[in-house]
Structure to design on (912 residues):
């Protein structure tokens, strides 16, 4: 497989695997209970006992970051899965049926795209009230349009191919053609988008929790850890540096993976046939 | 078996005011091959796709054993799916690139929900493979791992799995090398003879059509301008366009386009003969639309010069 | 003295699956003013040969041997020197005129581009020459057409424009890669006509790469037949069509529609495989044990170069080996 030849992609994949492992085995990995407060240990810098130091309530930042990985990954994957599913379904329908169906769906997409994504998510999350689930809903709501557009575009090209016409002349119904023939042929760009999209969703959820719209205290979330730490930025920068690094590395890893997948799946970059 | 006939009466295909097909009618008997020749853009492929309900016609009918094939919306009715089949031109897009050959081969049987068990289907698949000269090693490959000729064989096997009575072959070998073309065409002819399939063979290569067909119809700008038994048409083409076609093949060394081939943009609005602007023998009569007339035994010509 | 002589050219692609030998020890000569047809089926390496001459192959390809053009070895030239050769010395006529033109530039601009670039002409002068070129190729209303964009032209006109582009630098060798692929009979006759005009007008040599034997016969003095990376037969057009010597060429001729459409059984071997003997062995009707192991060399029989162990001096014994009897086992 080509994917192992690209060092960045490989790095991205390893980091993601480590992250997933961390999220799954979080309770076994942490040195402290992430929500346990030791006020006499507050605002300590990194040391042997607390690898990343402690926050203003004396909670172990390292443990909180590890537990935060769980929620971040959950949000990232769930948001991407939902928005991709919605986008694929609408994109397939728009591209396949064309005409009025296409027109209606694509105008809805345009309307959604007319709002800046994060601000729209902010409004939605604000309306729904704070909470992890609401953040997910808000992010999924602003994330599906890209998928719909890409899928529609690919379907438009693919549906003219002759095997689609053959399937039709065999008597296959629309749903069968869409899911058996079209979907496998449009999934490649979706996978690329999704891998980058997970990173984006994590970043956006961090942004929302930074603004206080995400998980409620004392749940450990990278975004709200950043937010809580900002008042100590000058006296105890490790409060913000470590969660920030966690976000940075995760988002980068997903981007690397996405780039690698693009190189792997993009037909234009495939080896040219030898004549 | 009843006589299989196929009519296409007054099929006017209007799209953006381009008449792609203009009153095309023909019939194919069981076991017979009708060759359809014409230059690119003459509407040959549109005929093929319209007959199978892939493009709705603007008007006209397609009859299969005297029954209407297309639903009012222009799609093929369920009961005819499988009885009428098509082979397309491009081997590279004829099969779903994400499906292995074995899946592709089973697909028609699954869609048609013939009451076959998985095991029966697999044994049927085995028979079909042998019929088209492929071996088991091809089953686990993907389409891009096969050559064009092999893919057309797979397509043929898929089609045979539903034992169709009528087959449209839309330039099935124009993308293949001559030696492979010979393999595929021979197989097609053999299979057709064994199963008594009515075949509509579409191509721009009049020699290939001559070899394959019993009768030949020449198409020009959406109309059939001449139709005759194959031998007759190749030896005595009458319509000026048919003559041009036959001549451009007849001799190898004299391959040349001495005729003043005028570049014109066809709009379909002129009422006269479509060939008027290119025809070396055009006269005043030709401003009127010619109709197909029988001039000899099964020889039909649409030209005022007859 | 040959204008272009290719000596032992071997082009290899390094792929994940291994080494693909697309051209294997190919030697060819093209004389001044000669038209040579290179025919062979899809994937036999004929396009690679054409691209090797121009050094336009992808990065994973390695060519060895010699390509001598006007006493200089093209394979030894630097990238910069090669740019000088392309266009002004060797013209290339690409396969599809529809995609060979840039859709957002006017025809006139695209035509004069080469002249301005290669010969440092001023715009006005280049324009005059380009217009002459178009006119000589039979395009009407040149001045008006030059202001058009490619999509405003018909296929035949585009073909002319692309042909004009390929000869603006007044090359002495033209390479045409499958100029008639996918065209119908009438258009094909036009393209052949156009190419014939081109060669007469420019007095350039032509290397015509095609899979269509009939096109090659119509245009060329000599024909080289390529099979699985090797040239198996090379002779005059008339000889190749009417008295082919190599079993593969015979099969190719027999599979023409007017010769009865008799196929060659089987498929050509993968270019990945290293075959010690004859590469046509598995499909050959006159094979024997020697062909399997013994390396086959080029032999000259009555002025025809043929790569087969069993072609006798008269070349007559195996005439018409493809026929009805042979056919029954073929399908």
């Amino acid at each position: 497989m080509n994917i192992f030849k690209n060092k960045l992609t490989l790095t991205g994949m390893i980091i993601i695997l480590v992250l997933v492992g961390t999220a799954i085995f979080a309770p076994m990995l942490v040195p402290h209970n992430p929500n346990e407060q030791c006020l006499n240990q507050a605002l300590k810098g990194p040391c042997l006992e607390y690898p990343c130091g402690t926050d203003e309530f004396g909670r172990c930042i390292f443990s909180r970051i590890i537990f935060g990985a769980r929620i971040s990954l959950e949000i990232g994957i769930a948001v991407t899965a939902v928005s991709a599913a919605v986008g694929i379904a609408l994109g397939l329908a728009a591209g396949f049926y064309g005409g009025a169906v296409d027109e209606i769906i694509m105008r809805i997409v345009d309307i959604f795209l007319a709002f800046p994504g994060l601000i729209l998510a902010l409004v939605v999350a604000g309306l729904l009230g704070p909470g992890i689930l609401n953040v997910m809903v808000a992010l999924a709501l602003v994330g599906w349009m890209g998928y719909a557009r890409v899928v529609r575009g690919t379907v438009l090209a693919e549906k003219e191919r002759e095997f689609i016409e053959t399937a039709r002349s065999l008597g296959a119904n629309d749903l069968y053609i869409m899911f058996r023939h079209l979907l496998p042929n449009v999934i490649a760009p979706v996978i690329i988008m999704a891998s980058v999209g997970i990173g984006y969703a994590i970043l956006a959820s961090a942004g929302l929790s930074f603004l206080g719209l995400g998980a409620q205290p004392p749940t450990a979330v990278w975004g709200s850890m950043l937010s809580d730490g900002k008042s100590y930025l000058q006296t105890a920068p490790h409060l913000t540096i470590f969660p920030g690094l966690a976000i940075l590395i995760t988002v980068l890893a997903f981007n690397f993976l996405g780039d690698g997948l693009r190189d792997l799946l993009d037909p234009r970059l495939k080896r040219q046939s030898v004549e | 078996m009843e006589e299989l006939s196929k009519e296409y009466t007054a099929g006017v295909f209007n799209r953006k005011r381009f008449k792609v097909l203009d009153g095309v009618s023909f019939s194919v008997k069981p076991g017979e091959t009708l060759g359809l020749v014409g230059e690119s853009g003459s509407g040959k492929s549109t005929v093929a796709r319209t007959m199978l309900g892939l493009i709705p016609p603007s008007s006209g009918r397609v009859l299969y054993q005297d029954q209407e094939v297309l639903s009012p919306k222009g799609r093929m009715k369920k009961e005819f799916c499988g009885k009428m089949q098509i082979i397309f031109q491009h081997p590279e897009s004829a099969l779903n690139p994400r499906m292995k050959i074995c899946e592709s081969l089973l697909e028609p049987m699954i869609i048609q929900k013939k009451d076959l068990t998985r095991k029966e289907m697999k044994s049927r698949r085995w028979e079909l493979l042998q019929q088209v000269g492929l071996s088991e090693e091809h089953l686990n490959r993907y389409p891009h791992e096969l050559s064009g000729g092999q893919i057309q064989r797979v397509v043929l096997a898929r089609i045979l799995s539903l034992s169709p009575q009528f087959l449209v072959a839309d330039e099935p070998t124009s993308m293949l090398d001559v030696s492979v073309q010979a393999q595929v065409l021979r197989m097609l002819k053999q299979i057709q003879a064994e199963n008594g399939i009515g075949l509509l063979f579409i191509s721009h290569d009049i020699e290939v059509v001559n070899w394959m067909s019993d009768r030949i119809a020449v198409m020009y700008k959406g109309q059939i301008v001449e139709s005759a038994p194959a031998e007759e048409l190749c030896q005595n083409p009458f319509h000026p366009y048919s003559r041009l076609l036959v001549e451009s093949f007849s001799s190898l060394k004299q391959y040349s386009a001495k005729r003043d081939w005028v570049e014109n943009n066809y709009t379909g609005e002129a009422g006269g003969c479509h060939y008027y602007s290119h025809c070396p023998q055009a006269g005043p009569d030709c401003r009127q639309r010619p109709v197909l007339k029988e001039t000899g035994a099964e020889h039909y010509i649409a030209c005022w010069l007859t | 003295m040959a204008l272009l002589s290719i000596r032992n050219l071997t082009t290899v692609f390094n792929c994940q699956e291994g080494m693909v030998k697309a051209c294997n020890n190919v030697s060819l000569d093209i004389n001044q003013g000669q038209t040579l047809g290179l025919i062979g089926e899809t994937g036999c390496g004929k396009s690679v040969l054409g691209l090797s001459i121009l050094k336009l192959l992808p990065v994973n390809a390695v060519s060895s041997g010699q390509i001598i053009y006007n006493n200089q070895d093209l394979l030894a030239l630097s990238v910069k020197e090669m740019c000088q050769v392309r266009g002004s010395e060797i013209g290339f006529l690409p396969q599809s005129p529809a995609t060979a033109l840039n859709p957002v530039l006017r025809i006139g601009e695209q035509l004069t581009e080469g002249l301005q670039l290669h010969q440092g002409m001023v715009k006005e002068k280049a324009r005059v020459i380009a217009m002459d070129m178009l006119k000589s190729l039979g395009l009407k209303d040149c001045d008006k057409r030059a202001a058009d964009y490619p999509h405003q032209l018909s296929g035949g006109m585009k073909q002319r424009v692309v042909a004009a582009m390929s000869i603006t630098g007044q090359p002495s060798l033209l390479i045409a890669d499958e100029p008639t692929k996918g065209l119908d009979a009438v258009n094909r006759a036009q393209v052949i006509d156009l190419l014939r005009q081109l060669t007469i007008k420019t007095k350039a040599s032509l290397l015509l790469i095609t899979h269509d034997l009939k096109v090659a016969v119509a245009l060329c003095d000599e024909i080289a037949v390529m099979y699985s990376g090797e040239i198996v037969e090379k002779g005059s057009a008339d000889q190749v069509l009417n008295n082919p010597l190599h079993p593969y060429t015979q099969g190719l001729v027999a599979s023409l529609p007017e010769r009865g459409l008799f196929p060659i059984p089987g498929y050509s071997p993968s270019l990945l495989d290293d075959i010690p003997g004859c590469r046509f062995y598995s499909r050959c009707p006159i094979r024997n044990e020697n062909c399997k192991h013994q390396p086959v060399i080029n032999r000259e029989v009555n002025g025809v170069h043929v790569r087969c162990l069993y072609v006798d001096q008269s070349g007559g014994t195996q005439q018409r080996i493809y026929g009805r009897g042979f056919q029954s086992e073929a399908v």
Remarks:
- Residues 73-246+253-266 of chain A form a domain with the MetI-like fold fold (CATH 1.10.3720.10).
- The CA atoms of residues 230 and 240 of chain A lie 7 Å apart.
- The radius of gyration of chain A is 22 Å.
- Chain A touches chain B through 15 residues (CB under 8 Å).
